[in-house]
């Protein structure tokens, strides 16, 4: 069984409460800071969920070496969109990261946080696309080199799924202008993970949004060397005194 299929079964297990057979209970490292360590932390979480309240709809699933990552529409203490990443060793999940955001939208262009294509293409371009996505985040989001935007995005040929931003460079420009007028700042500081399969690449980054310590997960679809579609989730990182494990968000 492929790692991404195991990831799908693990996530569906949240809904069905079946035993999480694909986890190495001795080594499992949890990076969701609202969940306790290991298998015991998962069991404690399940005990808090009212029976039948949780829904898991996996929209996209990918695999990159020892990693599998999924784009998920949840009802999990309320409707949320999430990205989940699992790292596997010897066929078992040994580490998990995620990023959850309350569901909202549609955005100014009418797109939801999850719609759009799910088809994986260009498997031979995985590594080149990962380099491109990392460079985009470094140049534009970390270093603010906005003059380089057209190197990565071809004008209006850019479909945006962020609930606050419209399509194309024009939509991005309007959103940035609004944020500036409201004194809202967004700063990416560190890229922690870059994972991809074919035309899709996920980056997991750390920074600040509105002055708050924040985790940014960005999923890019790349076509002919340009970013043509983008989905994301933005989640505030809780203060350390509120963590339920000591593994950190990343």
Identify the notable features of this structure and list them briefly.
250 residues, globular, 5 helices, 36% strand, 24% helix, alpha+beta, Nuclear Transport Factor 2, Chain: A, 5-stranded mixed sheet, 10 strands
Characterization of this structure:
This protein has 250 residues and is of the alpha+beta class. It has 2 domains: 3-105, Nuclear Transport Factor 2, Chain: A; 123-236, Roll (Nuclear Transport Factor 2, Chain: A), CATH 3.10.450.50. 24% of the residues lie in helices and 36% in strands. It contains 5 helices and 10 strands, in the order αβαββββααβαββββ. It has helices at residues 3-16, 38-48, 126-142, 149-152, 168-181, and strands at 29-30, 55-64, 67-75, 79-89, 92-102, 159-160, 186-197, 200-209, 212-223, 226-236. It is globular.
């Amino acid at each position: 069984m492929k790692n991404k299929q195991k990831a799908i079964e693990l996530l569906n297990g949240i809904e069905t409460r079946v035993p999480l057979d694909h986890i190495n209970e001795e080594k499992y490292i949890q990076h969701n800071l609202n969940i306790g360590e290991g298998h015991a932390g998962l069991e404690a979480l399940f005990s808090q969920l009212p029976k039948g309240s949780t829904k898991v709809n996996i929209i996209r699933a990918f695999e990159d070496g020892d990693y599998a990552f999924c784009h998920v529409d949840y009802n999990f203490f309320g409707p949320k969109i999430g990205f989940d990443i699992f790292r596997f060793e010897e066929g078992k999940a040994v580490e998990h990261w995620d990023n959850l955001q309350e569901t909202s939208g549609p955005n100014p262009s009418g797109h939801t946080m999850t719609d759009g294509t799910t088809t994986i293409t260009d498997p031979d371009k995985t590594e080149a696309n990962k380099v491109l996505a990392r460079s985009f985040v470094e140049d534009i989001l970390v270093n603010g080199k906005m003059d380089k935007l057209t190197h990565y995005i071809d004008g209006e040929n850019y479909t945006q799924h962020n609930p606050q931003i419209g399509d194309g460079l024009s939509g991005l420009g309007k959103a940035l202008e609004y944020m500036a007028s409201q004194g809202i700042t967004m700063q990416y500081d560190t890229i922690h993970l870059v994972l991809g399969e074919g035309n899709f690449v996920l980056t997991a980054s750390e920074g600040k949004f509105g002055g708050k310590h924040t985790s940014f997960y960005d999923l890019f679809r790349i076509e002919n060397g340009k970013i043509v579609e983008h989905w994301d989730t933005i989640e505030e990182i809780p203060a350390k005194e509120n963590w339920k494990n000591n593994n950190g968000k990343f």
